[in-house]
Design a protein that fits this description.
Elements (H helix, E strand, L loop, with lengths): L26 H25 L11 H6 L2 H17 L10 H21 L12 H11 L7 H22 L13 H6 L1 H11 L4 H15 L6 H28 L2 H7 L8 H10 L23 H21 L5 H18 L2 H12 L8 H22 L4 H34 L13 H5 L1
Helix pairs in contact: 1-3, 1-13, 1-14, 1-15, 1-16, 3-9, 3-13, 4-5, 4-17, 5-9, 6-9, 6-13, 10-13, 14-16
């Protein structure tokens, strides 16, 4: 991650005339601590969704389901956008510098997708693996790094509003999703159907979830060490998180959207019990297309505009709270808060490794615990083993693999791009056509190269 350099007249002075260098302020570390801690919260939230019960004995949503279902995965996606912003220097990438960034992001997507497909043997009823969809999201996000921040924000709003409506039109025309965790066999056997499921019809449809990456990319380009920015994120996040369910309630109850949904229930392909469950507990990435009023629902994993907006707000507010917590300056509260944040941040710094280990654990014979006991065992193991690994080996093994391959791809692509530009420049200088230029100057496109 690079920092923006602001040149002043003093910066042009001789080295002996410059003031002595000042140490890097501690806020940079606090900002990173807050972001990694947010990743840790997302990880433990995902584990809670997969490990704990969704309903209690009376059939009502449990507290863990109410808090984490839909929101934990959305927080992961928003933080993925923040990570992309960090990888690209927290600013718009120029086209002339884009080759290395494109290669790094593409290789990162391929590696994450391969890890996800390697988990295709697991039971989707225990946990739907999100990594293959993440790979598609990474690829879709590549053009975004070349856009100015305001246009990224506009794209996110357009996707949040338009992608659910587009899916409402496309879903009846597309094959039903398999609701299985895809593996390499799916890629070889029917790549088109797999791509359709990952992009449009699946539980984590990449074209709609691109709204989360847009939000994260905008957030990551902000100066997250400024309190004004953090408080703005907190206010914005809370506003969206509250406004979405309120708007859904008004549309469904005051404007009779709920009555329209039940009137169209026979055409939905769901039984009355399944319809009630969908309205209460959410879906598997989509809603029935029997009526457009389904887009007024904000239940988890329904991928409606209000679901996307509300979960984006919750993710933004969560990140802001953890950024604020990492900046507490009073000694005693700071020590307590850091004692809580550091284990979260350690887990958040290796979420790919720990998420993969979690998926493998709940699909193995080792997971013979009760729901709460299994969850606590995983949390304790992550805190202890994650801290030990971080203290001795540093980066998580899968994170290290992704980093090595993406950095190698960046260097290779940058080297080839530089060689190609040099050859073009040399060709122009040696070409006989250069003498026909009446101005005697080269075109700007060659000069800039």
């Amino acid at each position: 991650m690079t920092q923006t350099l602001h040149l002043s007249p003093n910066a042009l002075a001789r080295p002996t005339d410059r003031p002595p260098a000042t140490p890097v302020p501690p806020t940079r570390r606090s900002r990173l601590l807050g972001v990694d801690a947010a990743r840790g919260v997302a990880l433990f939230g995902m584990i809670a969704v997969h490990s704990l019960y969704a309903a209690d004995a009376a059939g009502r949503p449990t507290w863990s389901f109410t808090i984490f279902q839909g929101r934990a995965a959305a927080l992961f996606a928003v933080l993925t956008g923040v990570g992309i912003a960090f990888l690209t220097g927290r600013r718009r990438v120029r086209l002339t510098d884009g080759t290395g960034h494109v290669a790094a992001l593409a290789v990162r997507a391929l590696v994450i997708g391969a890890i996800g497909l390697g988990l295709g043997y697991t039971d989707a009823s225990l946990a739907a693996v999100i990594l293959p969809s993440y790979a598609v999201m990474f690829l879709l996000a590549i053009p975004l790094v070349f856009l100015p921040t305001w246009l990224v924000a506009f794209t996110g709003l357009a996707v949040a509003a338009g992608a659910p409506a587009l899916r409402q039109i496309l879903l009846p025309q597309l094959p039903e999703p398999t609701y299985e965790n895809p593996g390499f066999a799916h890629l070889v056997g029917d790549a088109g159907r797999l791509l359709t499921e990952l992009s449009v019809t699946g539980e984590y449809p990449a074209i709609a979830w691109l709204a989360y990456l847009c939000a994260g990319l905008v957030i990551g380009r902000l100066i997250l060490t400024r309190l004004k920015v953090i408080f703005s994120l907190l206010l914005t996040g809370l506003t969206l998180a509250v406004a979405a369910p309120v708007a859904s309630w008004v549309l469904l109850n005051r404007y009779e959207g709920l009555r329209q949904i039940w009137s169209a229930q026979p055409k939905s392909g769901l039984s009355p019990a399944e319809t009630a469950e969908l309205l209460t507990f959410g879906g598997d990435g989509s809603t029935p297309t029997s009526t457009w009023w389904w887009l007024a629902v904000d239940a988890p994993h329904t991928t409606t505009p209000l679901d996307l907006v509300g979960t984006t707000g919750a993710a933004t507010a969560t990140l802001a709270v953890l950024l604020l917590a990492a900046r507490v300056a009073w000694p005693r509260p700071r020590r307590v808060i850091r004692a809580l944040l550091i284990p979260l941040a350690v887990a958040g710094s290796m979420t790919l490794t720990l998420y993969t280990a979690h998926i493998m654990f709940i699909n193995s014979n080792l997971d013979n615990f009760t729901a709460m006991s299994g969850y606590l065992v995983q949390v304790l193991a992550i805190l202890l083993l994650g801290t030990a690994w971080s203290a001795t080996a540093g980066r998580g093994p899968l994170e290290g693999l992704v980093m090595v391959l993406s950095r190698g791809a960046r260097r290779l692509a940058t080297r080839h791009a530089s060689t190609y530009r040099a050859r073009l420049s040399s060709y122009w200088e040696e070409s006989p056509r250069a003498g026909h230029d009446p101005t005697g100057a080269q075109p700007a496109m060659w000069r800039s190269g």
